[in-house]
Amino acid sequence: MASVAAFRANCRKVMCIGRNYADHIKELNNQRPKQPFFFLKPPSSMLFPGDGPILHPRGVNMHYEVELGLIMGKTLRDLGPADEKGALDAIESYVLAIDMTARNVQDEAKRKGLPWSIAKGFDTFLPLSNIIPKSRIPNPYDVLLHLSVNGQIRQQDKTDLMLFRIPRQLSDISRVMTLEKGDLVLTGTPKGVGEVKTGDVLKAGIEGIEEANIEVDVKDREGPYEFKET
Amino acid sequence: MASVAAFRANCRKVMCIGRNYADHIKELNNQRPKQPFFFLKPPSSMLFPGDGPILHPRGVNMHYEVELGLIMGKTLRDLGPADEKGALDAIESYVLAIDMTARNVQDEAKRKGLPWSIAKGFDTFLPLSNIIPKSRIPNPYDVLLHLSVNGQIRQQDKTDLMLFRIPRQLSDISRVMTLEKGDLVLTGTPKGVGEVKTGDVLKAGIEGIEEANIEVDVKDREGPYEFKET
Ligand SMILES: [Mg+2]
Ligand SMILES: [Mg+2]
Ligand SMILES: [Mg+2]
């Protein structure tokens, strides 16, 4: 199992699947995809336990999305979409992740056909738990994800609701771009996403797995950035 | 100056500006942006001299875009948009880059409001020259970029045509996400982009700078990927 320090130093690609839980697609009024689609977050957005608060950029409607993360342990290219063993063998460990999203920035990008990289890529927009040893999750579809805001449960669903399973995800990514040791793949968020504001406290976790705990508060981001639609 | 090996091992983020030359915006019938916008390419897309051909994914309309690349030498956050000295001080060296783009994949993404990461992120979709020592480019706006396909010049423009200059680019990126040592920033492409096919030979360079030479051919990509609109 990689340490947080090793993972932080070596992760070069964070690939995230969009719209991978049916009820989450409905809540955002999105189309259900006929095939998986993916986007990148920059490694500079990672926020590990002890790194400090999530920073809220001015003018941004900031949403949480709790997701199971796969840390890759080997190079993967052209994995078969039904290769369950190949997919699981390629996973080195797990991590719980919150895919923070600047929803109004993303909405403008979607309307104008622009990339999502800014909406998904602000500093601190990828809170992570400690690394979860692979042996702690014998079945990645038997994982109960939960996220609360100020003590109120907002997301709580099992990973068996994924529309595209892990082999299909790693297949579709790896036939486009090589997955490398240390890369992180986020597997999508269940229903219940919503806004958080300065002063809120987010807690997330996986039932029964202490290493998956995330507890992080939200503070205003200083500096010149302000979102304004153009 | 970093070596190719050190850069390849350490680059964690490739940020690219879109629509930064007026005549290139016109040729693709795009809107001129009121502010810069950016997208990520994965480090796994890098293709250095000697690495082999550009691989053409099945069903993809594959376009070249020659661009001046900035390799960052230090951490940058919240740079001022007019801080010419701060911007140039943060550049460690330069590299010539071809931002290969799956145009039909991108067109579908733009129409459907989906991310650009796949269209921009295939393996081999970032041909690079050798590292160009900073001293070889005393003025990054006085650089004549050129690209030819099978011996015919297709792109040939000076970097003084950039709509948003380098300090503004680094300012807008660094107020969203921290730029780190070893990150690469692509500064946009001038007019003349177009398709290349298997068997074509691309040459690109910067007038007067031998380190900037790129010569790479195009071959079919093996494997299961095929682009089909859904
Ligand atoms: Mg997500
Ligand atoms: Mg994108
Ligand atoms: Mg480009």
TrEMBL record, chains A, B:
<dbReference type="GO" id="GO:0018773">
    <property type="term" value="F:acetylpyruvate hydrolase activity"/>
</dbReference>
<dbReference type="Pfam" id="PF01557">
    <property type="entry name" value="FAA_hydrolase"/>
</dbReference>
<dbReference type="GO" id="GO:0019752">
    <property type="term" value="P:carboxylic acid metabolic process"/>
</dbReference>
<protein>
    <recommendedName>
        <fullName>Fumarylacetoacetase-like C-terminal domain-containing protein</fullName>
    </recommendedName>
</protein>
<keyword id="KW-0479">Metal-binding</keyword>
<comment type="similarity">
    <text>Belongs to the FAH family.</text>
</comment>
<dbReference type="GO" id="GO:0046872">
    <property type="term" value="F:metal ion binding"/>
</dbReference>
<feature type="domain" description="Fumarylacetoacetase-like C-terminal">
    <location>
        <begin position="13"/>
        <end position="212"/>
    </location>
</feature>
<dbReference type="InterPro" id="IPR036663">
    <property type="entry name" value="Fumarylacetoacetase_C_sf"/>
</dbReference>
<dbReference type="GO" id="GO:0005739">
    <property type="term" value="C:mitochondrion"/>
</dbReference>
<dbReference type="InterPro" id="IPR011234">
    <property type="entry name" value="Fumarylacetoacetase-like_C"/>
</dbReference>
